[in-house]
Amino acid sequence: MTSLKVAKVGHKQKKELVCLCNQVPREAIERAIINGADTPIKIFDATMAGVGACGGSCRVKLYQLLDSYLESKKFPDRLTMNYKPKSKPKK
Ligand code: FES
Question: What's the domain count of the chain?
């Protein structure tokens, strides 16, 4: 019973659309990171998240997922727009 509850919460989080411009769910971004996308540019290339018409307003969430995974091999429960990225690409 406990695992079912965890699965429901996790399922809802995974379906969360992170990039609205390109309709990219959190699940696709996490999968790309787990499969080796270890920079923001690799995430952009693998998922199309962060490169939509708005100019990348979702990138702060991508950075949050990436930074968390690189630090702890885990993803955060919640994503915030107030995050200060560590993995922001250099220009
Ligand atoms: S919401 Fe992701 S690029 Fe616009």
Answer: 1
